[in-house]
Each structure stands twice: as structure tokens, then as C-alpha cells.
UniProtKB/TrEMBL annotation:
Keyword tags: Membrane, Transmembrane, Transmembrane helix
Lipid bilayer topology: Multi-pass membrane protein
Catalytic activity: L-alpha-aminoacyl-L-arginine(out) = L-alpha-aminoacyl-L-arginine(in); L-alpha-aminoacyl-L-lysine(out) = L-alpha-aminoacyl-L-lysine(in); L-lysyl-glycine(out) = L-lysyl-glycine(in); L-lysyl-L-alpha-amino acid(out) = L-lysyl-L-alpha-amino acid(in)
Pfam family, one: MFS_1
Molecular functions (GO terms): transmembrane transporter activity
Organism: Lymnaea stagnalis
Subcellular location(s) of the protein: Membrane
Single GO cellular component term: membrane
Record-annotated Major facilitator superfamily (MFS) profile domain positions: 1-438
Assembly behavior: Homodimer. Interacts with lysosomal protein GLMP (via lumenal domain); the interaction starts while both proteins are still in the endoplasmic reticulum and is required for stabilization of MFSD1 in lysosomes but has no direct effect on its targeting to lysosomes or transporter activity.
Summary of the function given for this chain in its UniProt record: Lysosomal dipeptide uniporter that selectively exports lysine, arginine or histidine-containing dipeptides with a net positive charge from the lysosome lumen into the cytosol. Could play a role in a specific type of protein O-glycosylation indirectly regulating macrophages migration and tissue invasion. Also essential for liver homeostasis.
Protein name per the record: Lysosomal dipeptide transporter MFSD1
Main location: membrane
Region (Disordered): 456-493
Length: 493
């Protein structure tokens, strides 16, 4: 603290490191069921004489149906959808420090409850307790991501914003990648219960990181002299300010929702799909499915840096959606090796994440960013939750059809995911149309942005805002009279 000043580049990257660690463990935990799907849905070979649905005499198998398994993802998504709206507004009103403690605690509690549920194997309490754990985990993880993005947006505003978002995504995906590489081996060596508790311990690491981020953020904001102004702006924020969010924002939200509707439900079932269609063993299948996150972890920071310089966020969002169509087409109608498809999807997913999420701070103000992120995450999770349920219903029970019937059902799943991708293309197309009519904010380069900032600064030096426009009722939005903003929503003063 004595070595680095808050205005130094090293300080903000130190904040970024511990900010990234907030979600490393939670992203590891999020997709653990995907890697262990075969264990979760292992068929029931014997009963204990009771009426328990999930009785199983294997050491680890829980005997869930595919529909119940997909419900683990759906309950996470739906909880996110409900909680993150209020969470985003809460963060905007009370600040990052309250949010980071609250939501990292929920991640830890939820992952621990989920792990404890495995001890109830063979009873009717198994599924409700594990669903409750995913509910708590979903309440924390989606909201924690909002705090994480808000902290990143504050410390990297007008600087390496897209690159910082890319690095944050890379750390999260590192957790996902390690999950796909290590979880199955760990489960084979130590069993399901210890594996799930290992994930919970990684969420404890996130809670410790939350403490460090809080200290760094509090010290840095105070040293920069922004503490008073942030509190004042939070006081002005009203829930009714949501009505001022632009059409561009809502189109970004739709593009994100439809793109992720294709990616996340696929990842949730990819391992089993690859085993069924391509006859790969469990371990190679999990590695192939995890390749999506391998690519994302490696290329996201570099993509973010490039997009910071060249812009073109709207064009990239639409192009990546178009290039995702062949992925689901090949998976549905061909026997091309699945690794080609998952690597391909990893590339398009990385471009989509690096272009879509950093677009949100460009179309809303810093003060409303938490609320905007909450709304975005909510809509995204509603879509993912519905998609998971639809996928589960398409697949049905694993033992009620022959191999040909199973492959046909998987084909219908891929066609459904393809349909979501086409909807993403439409949303991104209209986003570019609207953005172009409003000045092309999403697609301007760093050089053009600096020129625009200088022009704005010159205008603001010669114009005095009327006193009657400086009241607390003024919406804190880009172009709003209460504060001067660039067209991209970043503060000038």
C-alpha cells in the first residue's frame, strides 16, 4: 500500500488480480455437475427396500434422471434471474464492499450445502438439498459477477477496459478448465463427496479474495478522492431510472441472452452427448467438452486488448454469432470429430464475451452499471434456465429409448441451440443499426474515442449548465444533465 499509489497502473492491476480470484472457485464449482454427469445420473442397479427414488448401491452414483440433472442448472439460472436484479440495484446503492462480502458468502454456503447433499444418497432428501445448494450458489455467483464487473469498470474506466474484462473472463475460465481436467480424476481417486467439498474450499478462496479486494478498493477510492462523489451519486439513484436505459442496452441484453442460450446448455450436457454420439470414454469426452473453456482462457485477454484499440464491438458480436452456426450444424448433422466443434465454439464464445459484456459500460453510466449488469444477468439466466429445461425435456429419460432414438433426440437439441444462435444474429444486427444511427459508439476505435473526448472537453469548458438542471432528480445516465459524460457513458469529470 505504501509502495503503490492508487493512481499507479500497478495498483489497479493488483486490484484486478484479486478481483479475478473472486470467481475462480465459483466457476470451478459451477460446471462440476457437467464433468460428473455420468456419476450423478448413474442408473439404479439395486434398491434398499425403501421408496427412495435415488437409491443406488454403487459407491458414488446418485441415480438422477436427465431431467433432474438439468434441473440443477435450471435452478441456478432461475435463481440468478430473480436475485441479480435486486442485487445490482443494491450494489449501486450500498457499494461494492457490501456486495462482495454478501455474495461471496452465499457462494461458499451454497457450494457447501450442495456437497453436503451427496451424503443423503438413497433418500428422498437428496435432490431437494442439492437443489437448495444450487439455489444459494446461484444467488451468490451471478451477483458476485456483477460486483466483479462493477469493480473492473471503475478501476479501468477510460483505460484498458475490454482487456480487463478479458483477463477477468480468463481467470473465471481457468477455474472451468481445471474443473474439466481435474475433477473426474479427483472423483475416481477420492470419491464424489470429497470432490464436491474440494469445490467448496475453492469458494472459500474466493471469500478470502473478497476481503483483500475490499481493503484495496476502499483505500484506493479514498486516495483518489472519489469516495464522497460515489456516495452522493448512489444516493441520487432511483429504481425508476431503469426506464432511461437505452434501446442499445436492451439489444445488447438480447444478444447476450441468445448467444449464451446456445453455449451454456451445450456445455452442461456436452460430455454425455460426446460419449453417446462419438463413443468416447468419460475422460476424453470431458476433455473435449472443456476445450471450449481452454480456448476462452487463452485468447480472451488478447482479444480484449485488441478490441480496446480497434473497437468494432457491434460488428464483432454479429460476426461471431454468424460463425457459431456451423458448430451446431456439424454437431447435429455430421460425425466430424467433436474437438473441432468445441475448439471452434471456444473461439466464437471468446469473441462474443470480449465484445458483448464490455459494451454494457459504454451504453450506461457508471452509477447505473450495477443495475444494468443485474438486469442483463437476469435476462440471460432466464433464457439459460428455460433452455436447460427444454433440453432436459427433449432428452427425457435415458433408458426409455434405443441408441437411434437417443441420437435423434440429441440432434433436436443441437437444432434448438442453433435456433438461439440465429436469434442472437438478429439482435446483433438491429443493435448495429441502432448504434449507427446514434453515433456508432460501440464501433469507434480508441483513437476516435480520444478525439471525441477532447471535443467534449472543449465544449464543456465554454458552456455552463443551467442551475435548475443540477438537482438530485436528474437521471445519472449518458448525456444526462446531472453530470457530463462521453457518448460511451464514461465520466469526463
Amino acid at each position: 500500500m505504501a509502495i503503490l499509489r492508487a493512481s499507479d497502473r500497478g495498483y489497479r492491476f493488483l486490484v484486478l488480480f484479486f478481483n479475478c480470484m473472486l470467481t475462480f472457485g465459483s466457476y470451478f464449482c459451477f460446471d462440476m455437475p457437467s464433468v460428473l454427469q455420468d456419476v450423478f445420473t448413474k442408473t439404479n442397479n439395486c434398491t434398499n427396500g425403501s421408496e427412495a427414488v435415488y437409491s443406488n448401491c454403487s459407491d458414488d452414483g446418485l441415480g438422477m434422471s436427465d431431467a433432474d440433472y438439468n434441473l440443477l442448472y435450471a435452478i441456478y439460472a432461475w435463481t440468478n434471474a430473480v436475485v441479480v436484479i435486486g442485487a445490482g440495484f443494491l450494489i449501486d446503492k450500498l457499494g461494492n464492499r457490501v456486495g462482495v462480502f454478501l455474495f461471496s458468502s452465499l457462494c461458499l454456503l451454497g457450494s457447501s450445502t450442495f456437497a453436503a447433499g451427496a451424503f443423503l444418497k438413497g433418500t428422498s432428501y437428496l435432490l431437494p438439498i442439492m437443489l437448495f445448494g444450487r439455489l444459494l450458489f446461484g444467488s451468490g455467483n451471478g451477483s458476485l459477477t456483477i460486483v466483479q464487473n462493477r469493480i473492473t469498470a471503475y478501476w479501468f474506466r477510460d483505460k484498458e477496459l475490454a482487456m480487463a474484462f478479458g483477463i477477468t473472463l480468463a481467470f473465471s475460465r481457468l477455474g472451468s478448465v481445471l474443473n474439466f481436467f481435474l475433477t473426474q480424476m479427483f472423483e475416481e481417486a477420492y470419491g464424489l463427496k470429497w470432490t464436491l467439498w474440494g469445490g467448496a474450499m475453492l469458494c472459500l478462496l474466493g471469500f478470502i479474495s473478497a476481503i483483500i479486494v475490499t481493503i484495496l478498493d476502499k483505500h484506493g477510492v479514498k486516495e483518489l478522492g472519489d469516495e464522497g462523489s460515489l456516495k452522493s451519486e448512489s444516493k441520487k439513484l432511483k429504481i425508476t431510472d431503469v426506464k432511461h436505459l437505452s434501446l442499445s442496452f436492451w439489444l445488447v441484453v438480447l444478444a447476450i441472452m441468445f448467444f449464451y442460450n446456445g453455449v451454456f446448455p451445450f456445455v452442461a450436457d456436452a460430455s454425455k452427448f460426446i460419449q453417446t454420439k462419438y463413443k468416447l470414454d468419460k475422460k476424453p469426452a470431458s476433455y473435449v467438452a472443456g476445450a471450449i473453456y481452454d480456448v476462452s482462457m487463452i485468447v480472451s485477454p488478447f482479444l480484449g486488448g485488441l478490441i480496446d484499440v480497434f473497437g468494432k464491438r457491434g460488428y464483432i458480436a454479429m460476426s461471431t454469432a454468424v460463425l457459431t452456426i456451423p458448430v451446431f450444424g456439424l454437431l447435429a448433422f455430421s460425425y466430424v470429430h467433436p474437438l473441432i466443434c468445441t475448439l471452434w465454439l471456444g473461439v466464437t464464445y471468446s469473441f462474443a464475451a470480449a465484445s458483448m459484456w464490455p459494451s454494457i459500460p459504454l451504453v450506461v453510466s457508471q452509477t447505473t452499471l450495477g443495475t444494468a449488469m443485474g438486469l442483463t444477468t437476469s435476462v440471460q439466466m432466464v433464457g439459460i434456465g428455460i433452455s436447460n429445461v427444454i433440453v432436459g425435456q427433449i432428452l427425457g429419460k435415458d433408458d426409455d429409448t434405443d441408441d437411434a432414438g437417443k441420437l435423434l433426440r440429441w440432434k433436436y437439441v443441437m437444432i434448438f441451440l442453433l435456433g438461439n444462435t440465429i436469434c442472437c444474429i438478429l439482435a446483433a444486427f438491429f443493435l448495429n443499426v441502432v448504434d449507427r444511427r446514434r453515433g456508432g459508439i460501440l464501433n469507434i476505435s480508441k483513437h476516435q474515442k480520444l478525439l471525441l473526448a477532447r471535443q467534449k472537453a472543449e465544449v464543456n469548458q465554454t458552456e455552463e449548465p443551467p442551475p435548475e438542471l443540477e438537482g438530485e432528480e436528474d437521471p445519472l445516465l449518458p448525456g444526462g444533465p446531472g453530470r457530463k459524460y462521453l457518448q460511451d457513458g464514461n465520466s469526463l469529470n
